[in-house]
Design goal:
10 helices; alpha/beta; five-stranded mixed sheet; Arc Repressor Mutant, subunit A; D-Maltodextrin-Binding Protein, domain 2; 3 domains
Amino acid sequence: MNDLETRQLRYFVAVAEELHFGRAAERLGMAQPPLSRAIRTLERQLGVALLERTTRQVTLTPAGEVLLRDARTALDAIGAAGRRARHAGEPAPRLRLALKPDVDGGLLPRILDAYDGEAAALPVELVLGRFGEQAQAVRDGRADAALLLTPFDDRGLDVEPLAAEPFLLAVAAADPLAARSSLRLADLAGRSLPDGSPADQGVAPGPYGYDRDDALAQRTGHSSRDLPQIFRLVELGSVVCFFPASLTLRYPRPEIAYRPVEGQAPAVLAVAWPKDSRAASVAAFVRAAATVSAAAQLRTAAT
């Protein structure tokens, strides 16, 4: 069998993710017939069927599922190799830290101060992104480390949990639920999170119910990743939403009540970095983050 080419993997991943040759071809900026031929050539090269094709749908075979997982990892590694090489060759090295604004458990300023005191510290460049993008930024080389909430796809990453805090439910102040000091998940029956999922199922796997962005856009014209818009929708009673407690302290709003919900798992902040990283600057950042979070938990326990 000949070695697989990057182009073949990109073509296959596009088809496997779209499960539609037309959409995959559009995504790749090419015509559909050569894409179909390329996938058939790949299947012949591997000697296995990767896709089941009918007139109505395209689905992955077990072999296709395996290749999709490994192809994503391979493409990430190839992209990361180039980005990290360019980064290493820069005249002024930096530590690139991926995070979503306000999702740091309130610890980021203290972590950066502690990191600055490390001998191996580098200037920090923040790589800001939407929820769910941080792990991928580390995998593909756009970032050297990330602060993010679990759970997330940790393929190729080392992870250190830092701190846990409760999720609070954001609900309109005029909502009858706001009159109660605490709630249970069952009390949220009939309410929706911003992505359209039932609120009584809790927030897993994403902390705000941001997992199906298109659903909210279709219903409201707004992206569920736009925090001011989410606050406005909560104020209007259109949705309820879960936020880490530290974030609610930053955004007190008279039209919104924040209430604890029994049975909801906590928000866990973690630091992640490439599994094969040997960079002293990354190790120093992880050490600083762990030290600061441990001290913060001790202070919380003492109060």
